[in-house]
Specification:
about 270 residues, single chain, 9 helices
C-alpha cells in the first residue's frame, strides 16, 4: 500500500509534535495550550481531530481552496476595466477612493494587487532607480560661477545668526563670500559686485530658485514686446551685463550648499 504524503508547514509540524506529546502523556493539555498559544478547549478539539483524521487534522481546511472572502473574478474584471478607463494613472489609494465614490467598494491593498497584475502599477522595489550622472567641471576659471547663501550661527554664541552669501567657481573652486544680516537682493548684488571687482565678469552664473533670483509673476506687456520673460531685480541686473545663451545643468561643487543643485535659468 502506497504511503500517503502530507505537506506540512513548519508551524503545522510543531503543532503536531506537541499534540503527539500530549497523546503520549509527556505534556498536559494546559501546557500544550501554553506552548501553542491556544486554550485548553482548542487543544482538546485538535486531539479529537487527530484521533479521527490522523496527521491531516493539523492542515488548515481551506488549503488549496479559494478564500471565502475572495471577490468573484467577474467583479475583479469590472473594477480593472474601470481603472483602465478612468484611473489608469492613479495610485492604488487614490483610485480606491474614487472607486468607492462610484460604488465599487474594494480595499486599496486588494486594488494594488489587481493593478500590479494588470501592469497599471509597479511596486517600489521594481521601479527603475534614477541615475544621476555628474558632469565634468568647466575647463577654465570664469566659465561658470555659482551663487548661494546659507543661514547658520556662524559666530556661534558670540554673535547673532547671519547669512553667508558665497560665489564659487566651477572649474577651480575659487571661493568668495561675505557675511550679511539678511539674505536680500541688495546683499546678493553687493556680494556679486565684490566678485566682479576681484575676478571680472564670468561667462555664466547659476543660483537656486529663490524669489530673489527668479520670479513667478507673468511678464508685462513691455517685457513681452521685447521678447523677455518676467525677471527679478537681480535678474534684470544680470541682463544688463549681457546674455550668452540657454542655461545648463549644474553639478554641486564639494563643500557648496545643496541650493546650488537647482539652476536659476539665468546666464550672461
Amino acid at each position: 500500500m502506497e504511503t500517503e504524503r502530507i505537506a506540512l508547514s513548519q508551524r503545522e509540524r510543531d503543532r503536531l509534535r506537541v499534540l503527539q506529546d500530549v497523546k503520549q502523556g509527556h505534556l498536559t493539555q494546559r501546557e500544550a495550550g501554553r506552548r501553542l498559544r491556544l486554550s485548553d478547549r482548542q487543544v482538546r478539539r485538535m486531539l479529537l481531530r487527530v484521533g479521527k483524521y490522523g496527521d491531516q487534522a493539523v492542515v488548515h481546511g481551506l488549503r488549496g481552496r479559494p478564500s471565502n472572502r475572495k471577490f468573484a473574478s467577474c467583479f475583479e474584471q469590472q473594477v480593472v476595466a474601470r481603472v483602465r478607463q478612468r484611473y489608469r494613472d492613479f495610485g492604488p489609494t487614490l483610485a480606491a477612493e474614487h472607486l468607492a465614490q462610484e460604488g465599487w467598494l474594494v480595499s486599496r491593498e486588494t486594488l494594488r494587487k489587481w493593478m500590479i497584475k494588470a501592469a497599471f502599477w509597479r511596486p517600489r522595489r521594481q521601479r527603475a532607480k534614477k541615475i544621476y550622472v555628474w558632469r565634468e567641471r568647466r575647463a577654465s576659471f570664469g566659465e561658470l560661477v555659482m551663487q548661494d547663501s546659507s543661514p547658520f550661527r556662524w559666530l556661534e554664541e558670540r554673535g547673532p545668526a547671519c547669512q553667508l552669501i558665497a560665489l564659487i567657481d566651477d572649474a577651480t573652486s575659487k571661493f568668495w563670500a561675505r557675511f550679511s544680516e539678511h539674505d536680500s537682493t541688495e546683499e546678493n548684488l553687493r556680494t556679486l559686485g565684490g566678485w566682479l571687482r576681484r575676478y571680472g565678469r564670468p561667462v555664466a552664473q547659476y543660483t537656486d530658485k529663490n524669489s530673489i533670483f527668479r520670479t513667478t509673476r507673468r511678464a508685462g506687456i513691455a517685457e513681452q514686446l521685447q521678447g523677455e520673460g518676467a525677471r527679478s531685480q537681480f535678474g534684470r541686473a544680470l541682463q544688463e551685463l549681457g546674455s550668452n545663451g540657454s542655461p545648463r545643468t549644474v553639478r554641486r561643487p564639494r563643500g557648496a550648499s545643496s541650493g546650488c543643485l537647482q539652476p536659476c535659468r539665468t546666464a550672461w
